[in-house]
Amino acid sequence: MRAPHVLLFSTLSIGALAYVAGNPASPFAAARASAMQQPAAAQASAQVTPPREKDSVRFAIIGDTGTGTSSQYQVGERLTAARQMFPFEFVIMLGDNIYGSERPQDFVTKFEKPYKALLDAKVPFYAALGNHDDPTQRYYKPFNMNGERYYTFSKGSARFFVLDSNYMDQAQLKWLEDELLKANDRWKIAYFHHPLYSSGEKHGSEVDLRTQVEPLFIKYGVDVVFAGHEHFYERIKPQNGIYYFIEGGSAKLRKGDIRKGALTAAGFDTDFTFILAELGKDAMQFQALSRNGKPIDSGSLPLAEEPKKAAESKPPSR
Asked: Which DSSP category does 281 fall into?
C-alpha cells in the first residue's frame, strides 16, 4: 500500500517536490491549503450547539452590518461555518444594513459578497430599516421587505413583526395592533432597529418608542424582541414578561460602551458578534458567538403563557 508514496519520492527530486508543494497552481498545494483551512472551520462549528428539537424554527440574527469592512466579511464567514452545525433556515437583519453610499455596487460589497455563501445556499434574509438606511432599501429584493417599511411573515410556529423604528406613526401602530390581534402563532417575535431597553452609554434606552409599542407587546403576548443600533451584544433581564436582545455588533463595534446595571443580564462589547436562535415547543434556545466563533452567551428561555389563555384558565368568580 505504501509503494506509490515510495515511488513518488524516488522519482522526484527534493527541489522538484518543493516546487510542487510551493506552487499555488499545483493540485498538491491546493489540497494542502484546503486541509489547512478545514480545521479552522471545523473548530468554529464545533463550538456551536446543534438544534435540540426536530421541527423547531431556526434562524440567525445580525445587526448594524453594512460596512463592507473586513469585520463584516469575517462575521459572514463564521456565520456560514456555524450553519454546518446549526442549520438555520433564514437570517433577520436589525437595521443599518448599508452604511454610507447605496449605489448598486455598494449592495454587492456590503451585503452580497459578505454573505455570498448563504445567499448561494438560498438562505433568505429579512431586513428592518435602521437610521443609516435609505427607505428605498425596501425595494431591494434580497432584503425581502416587498416594498414595505414594516411587515410581517411567519415561519413554522412563529410569526415575526418587522417594524420601522425610525418613524413610529399612528398608521404603523394601528397596523401593528391589527396584526398582533390576528396572530394566533405559538411564538410572536418583534424586531426593529432602536432598542427599548439598553445599557449603552452612547445611546441607551429609547424611552419614547417604548411608550408607544411596549403596551401592545404586553397586551398581545409578544415573546421576544430583537433590536440593533447599539454596537455591541446585550441580553436584557426580562421586562414585563418579554425577552429583549440587542445585536448591533455584527460589523460595527463600540468597545467598552456597556454600563452594566439593573437591566443587564449579559453583555459583550469587545468583539463583533451574531446570534443563533431556535424556537421550540416550549422554549427558545439561543447562543451568541463572537467573530472568532467562541460562545459569549447562551441559554434557554421558556415560552410564556398567552395573556388571553391565562385569563381563560382562571376559574369563574362567584
From this structure: S
* Whether residue 23 has pLDDT greater than 90: no
Residues 162-198 pLDDT 10s:
999 999 999 999 999 999 999 999 999 999 999 999 9
Hey, which bits of 156-257 come out as E strands? 158-162, 187-191, 224-227, 233-239, 242-247
Nearest to 130 by CA among 299, 247, 303: 247
Domain annotation covers residue 3: no
Write out the residue range of the structural domain in which residue 241 sits. 12-304
**Structural domain tally of the chain?**
1
What CATH number does the domain containing 188 carry? 3.60.21.10
Task: Give the burial class of 53: count Cβ atoms within 10 A of its Cβ; 0-12 exposed, 13-18 middle, 19 or more buried.
Answer: middle
Q: How many residues does the chain have?
A: 318
In 136-164, which positions are buried (b, 16+ CB within 10 angstroms) versus exposed (e)? ebbebeebbbeeebbbbeebeebbbbbbb
Inter-residue contact 95 to 229 (CB < 8 Å): yes
